[in-house]
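Researcher: Structure prediction, please.
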Amino acid sequence: MKKVLLVFFLLGAGAIGLLAFGGDGVGFKWPSLKSILQWGSKPAPKPGEVSGFGEADPNTNEDARFIRDRTADFLEDIRFKDFDKAASYSSSVDRSKVNISRCITRLFKFPPESLDILSSEVVSVELDRSGTRGRVKTHSRVKVLNLDRFEEPELIFYWHKDPKEYWVMKLESSINP
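Model: Predicted structure follows.
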């Protein structure tokens, strides 16, 4: 009896093996272990992807692509200490009031002259359901000069779609801690 059960077990295991590894002969494809483990969960967005309420592909969503690119431009302007250009991403009303140098000092606890921004990347872009507000999460690597200390701040920049100026950064809420 044990031999008969063993034979049926081996035949069943062989049939399952043929289904799993035998190609498309029967038109059935076994799910991968990875897809089984991820079933029902949403993977984290990859760098540069759009996630959240306004799910959209940054390659096809013009607004997401725009605020992603402008945030990267802003970080580059900060890196090269072009504070006038960095202030230009805010609304025309806020532009005259914003002091980028002071905001950076409050954020990093060091004046901009003491900081060397080594790298910055956009981690994710998120739009709200109305498509008029956006968040861009970034990760930077910064060296504090004269202290030989490195920091890796994660910053979120907030954007608002203005009917007159297209997209403007809310600098005070973005770079104030």
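Model: The chain has two domains: 2-38, 49-175.
Researcher: Thanks, that helps.
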